[in-house]
Design goal:
Blueprint: H1 4-15, H2 21-29, H3 37-53, H4 59-75, H5 80-83, H6 85-95, H7 102-149
Helix pairs in contact: 1-3, 1-6, 2-3, 3-4, 4-7, 6-7
Length: 156
Amino acid sequence: METNQAIAEKWLVRILRPYPDQGARFFSASCDPLRNPVGHLYRESSQILVDELLGQMDAERLTSAIRCIVELRAVLELPPSVALAFLFELKEILDDRGLASLDTYYRRIDEIALIAFETYVRCRERICEARIHEVQRSVSALKRALESRDPSVVAE
């Protein structure tokens, strides 16, 4: 049976699939948090998720690790089906590893996927709110600029 680290390494390759080839190679090549913070977060978070999936399922560690991965993917504006597919690909990896009680691990993956989906939705909402606020600030600045030139131009 493979170690948790070997499973996490195989899973990392699948996690990085949505990135262009050059980006995926860069993220997987170095685990130095200063030179490659995104790759480091992916590597560290995937390892934590595998450890918890195959271990105690500590809710705090799981939530923190899944947040790191999902927020990175939500910022890329990947649709949820692509952003979260990596979770279900872990089932395929576990199938090939000869682990006992696959049903238990599958249920755990489904639980993690629900946490990930909630995290993804919250992150996308924050991004949309930030965009709305930016547009509102831009409109206000434009109104002020127009009013300073000719107050009769801007009608409320």
